[in-house]
């Protein structure tokens, strides 16, 4: 499903394409739509979804990951494959035996693993059968809980993983229990999901609700952008006049929209002393599937009243975007070149630059250098 980095069809062979219209560049791991940002924190679940003594299976970057929580409330992450006969450990149970502490018991032969991945017992062993049980390990992953969310560190070398050298991102306004959560799996590589998410021009065509906008409401926009930690932001501004939904908040709302690697996009709206945070978390399940989770927090009184309508709107947006992804896949299966233009597709180019710099800086053992500069982008939507 990747797109080749070739000259656009309307560019003569051997002539460099102009900056205003260029083919999608090759990514750092083969091509756009291939590979992942590694040595990074990925969102897995809300903290409330991981209850005590639970064993939950997730797939992240094509790897099966068990997320569990001990009876004491500690969270852990293990590769969800028993090294004996490959049964998923998440199909087993959490047990507490004297001398072993809490362990994950495989459903196939009862092998038990501590929450750090070390084997604690093999029930089939007889006396005198000297097997160094502790030498057998299941791969463990660094895991953090932050702002009511669970994040897993996905290393570049899973067999020799590095320890996290940073903490998960912090999001302004993510305080207390979220008021609204919706999610959907897109049949898309995360690269296409990110580019679609940050695309400023598709709204009037894909999202045609009366309360949002339409082709008739399109007009030129100019927005200032600036670099942020591992990403960029459309700096705080008054919402566009044709974005009708903002008007229900009253007052004079000001919003800032931020993107950060590997796949976080949030809009922080300030209305006087009140705020709304709309956070979108992208988790690559595998090369062909990305989970989109949208979480909202707000202390604005309008939010409580409008919650049923907002939930319906968010679900509609996700299904419309998901439907467009399916249509896009009809073209992507022929591996066509993708023509990106400035300024509407500038953020797509930025994403590729960030991804390339991230992987290059990790490989070279140096600090990340954000390639994005302050600028103003113009487009119609």
TrEMBL record:
It comes from the Bacteria. Residues 41-152 form the Rieske domain. Residues 1-29 are annotated as: Disordered. InterPro entries: Cholesterol_7-desaturase, Rieske_2Fe-2S, Rieske_2Fe-2S_sf. The keyword Oxidoreductase applies. Keywords: 2Fe-2S, Dioxygenase, Iron, Iron-sulfur, Metal-binding, Oxidoreductase. This is Aromatic ring-hydroxylating dioxygenase subunit alpha. It comes from Brevundimonas terrae.
């Amino acid at each position: 499903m990747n797109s080749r980095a070739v000259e656009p069809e309307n560019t003569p062979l051997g002539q460099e394409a102009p900056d205003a219209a260029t083919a999608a560049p090759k990514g750092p791991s083969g091509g756009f739509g291939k590979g992942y940002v590694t040595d990074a924190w990925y969102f897995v679940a809300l903290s409330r979804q991981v209850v005590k003594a639970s064993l939950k299976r997730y797939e992240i970057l094509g790897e099966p990951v068990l997320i569990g929580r001990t009876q004491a409330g500690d969270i852990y992450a293990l590769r969800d494959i028993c090294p004996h006969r490959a049964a998923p450990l998440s199909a087993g149970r959490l047990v507490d035996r004297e001398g072993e502490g809490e362990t994950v018991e495989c459903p196939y032969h009862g092998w038990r693993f501590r929450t750090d991945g070390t084997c604690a017992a093999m029930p089939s062993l007889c006396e005198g059968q000297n097997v160094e049980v502790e030498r057998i390990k299941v791969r463990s992953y660094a895991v953090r809980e932050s702002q009511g969310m669970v994040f897993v560190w996905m290393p570049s070398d899973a067999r020799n993983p590095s320890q996290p050298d940073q903490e998960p991102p912090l999001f302004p306004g993510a305080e207390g229990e979220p008021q609204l959560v919706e999610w959907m799996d897109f049949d898309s590589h995360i690269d296409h999901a990110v580019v679609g998410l940050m695309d400023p021009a598709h709204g009037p065509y894909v999202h045609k609700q009366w309360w949002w906008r339409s082709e008739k409401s399109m007009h030129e926009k100019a927005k200032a952008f600036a670099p942020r930690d591992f990403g960029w932001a459309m700096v705080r501004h008054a919402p566009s006049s044709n974005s009708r939904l903002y008007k229900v908040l009253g007052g004079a709302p000001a919003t800032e929209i931020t993107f950060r690697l590997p796949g976080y996009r949030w809009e922080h709206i300030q209305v006087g002393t009140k705020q709304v945070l709309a956070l979108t978390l992208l988790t690559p399940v595998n090369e062909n599937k990305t989970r989109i989770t949208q979480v909202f927090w707000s202390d604005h009184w309008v939010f409580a009243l409008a919650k049923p309508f907002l939930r319906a709107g968010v679900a509609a947006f996700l299904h419309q975007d998901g439907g467009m992804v399916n249509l896009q896949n009809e073209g992507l299966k022929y591996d066509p070149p993708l023509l990106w233009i400035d300024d509407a597709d500038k953020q797509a180019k930025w994403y590729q630059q960030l991804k390339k710099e991230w992987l290059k800086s990790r490989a070279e053992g140096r600090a990340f250098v954000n390639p994005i500069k302050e600028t103003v982008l113009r487009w119609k939507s």
